[in-house]
Design a protein that fits this description.
The structure holds two protein chains of two kinds. By secondary structure, chain A is mainly α. Chain A folds into two domains: 82 residues, 3-Layer(aba) Sandwich (Glutaredoxin); 117 residues, Glutathione S-transferase Yfyf (Class Pi), Chain A, domain 2 (Up-down Bundle). Helices cover 59% and strands 5% of the residues of chain A. In chain A, strands 2-1-3-4 form a four-stranded mixed beta sheet, with helices on one face. In chain A, strand 3 and strand 4 form a beta hairpin. In chain A, helix 1 crosses helix 6 and helix 4 runs parallel beside helix 6. The radius of gyration of chain A is 17 Å and the shape is globular. By secondary structure, chain B is α+β, with helices and mostly antiparallel strands. Chain B has a four-stranded mixed beta sheet, with helices on one face. In chain B, strand 3 and strand 4 form a beta hairpin. The longest helix of chain B is centred in the middle third of the chain and has 31 residues. The relative contact order of chain B is 0.15. The chains are: A mainly alpha, B alpha+beta. At the A-B interface, helix 3, helix 4 and helix 5 of A face helix 3, helix 4 and helix 5 of B. Chain A: It is found in: Cytoplasm, Cytosol.
Chain lengths: 221, 213
Amino acid sequence: MATPVKVYGPPLSTAVCRVVACLLEKDVEFQLISLNMAKGDHKKPDFLKIQPFGQVPAFQDEKISLLESRAICRYVCENYPEKGNKGLFGTNPLAKASIDQWLEAEGQSFNPPSSALVFQLALAPRMNIKQDEGVIKQNEEKLAKVLDVYEKRLGESRFLAGDEFSLADLSHLPNAHYLVNATDRGEILTSRDNVGRWWGEISNRDSWKKVVDMQKQQHSP
Amino acid sequence: MVVKVYGPAYASPKRVILCLVEKEIEFETVPVDLIKGEQRSPEYLKLQPFGELPVIQDGDFILYAIMRYYAEKYRSQGTELLGKTIEERGLVEQWLEVEAHNYNPAIYELTIQLLFSSKFGRPVDEKLVKESDEKLGKTLDVYEERLSKSKYLAGDFFSLADLSHIPFTHYLVGPMGRQHMIRDRKHVSAWWDDISNRPSWKKVLELCKTPFG
């Protein structure tokens, strides 16, 4: 059955699978239209019309075209409040504010150093780009400081924003997954008691397991 | 009890203050001196565990992802900052994220290098400045294209997305001496004139001095 909801981008992209995980949690049917970034699909005029920064993902439904994975996730939660996991973005304003806060922490504090490490340790070797030891060390230190804050928080709270799994936890899945499974630095997460416990829980969600399966079905990016 | 906003001298808290002014919400400010490292004090870290600005206290409630919460809570008063429909909201969120990931990192780096290096007794990293200028230029090219079709970023209405650009862009065209990056782009220039002349922004500048006069 054709669905108007389309996501553009390769499932191996962390930002693309952030959106896919959200759609799966919300039980919203969608079509994933893969792009070959190695061939420069994302820089072609047709794609730039819907994503002028030449980045992935791009999202379309019958009403709107959107970019930026976290904006897309927020839109999906607002547009389909009654579907799937209804509490994904909170069911009252204060719960939502807490989720928003940790979603911002992910975007501003966790994402930059974890992305840099994933690039240096998992992607650069595959792309025949020389690794930069200075960048690796700098981002390990940055990420360690952020995870110290998380360790304290997750000792007080089962999930980041409260007692329920939320969009804030979900947003961390893609980068954390690569760190643990595609680099030798996974212990930065798993060696911390509370962060390790949290990682075990969130990575075992059905929605995330489906995303990992989708990734395995793809060949190299 | 009135909302307390920490660190009014700096640009990130000014986004919050501007939002509160637009929404006609009363607030107080509490100074935090970044040069002295007050954001790393145990008292501050209790409020914002990442040691960053901004943070607000609203009664017992402490919040550091602030603007969306107030824009939603006070939907019925002041300026509508989130658009009127779910789709308009979606576009506001999109351009807020674009600012956070494609605009802010470059302009923030320029702020640190060009305006704060001397205060911290560090030399300017010219390579980082050059890279940041290039990144910011590329982003502004996309904005130029967008603003040729749309009066504001999310549509024909002023929103949180435009607002979030104001404090750091104020530095760009002022003490950083990079007004040409805005003025050389016809539609970005018109947009900047419009948003930076809002009475709310003028009020914020009167109330909260920057560290650069």
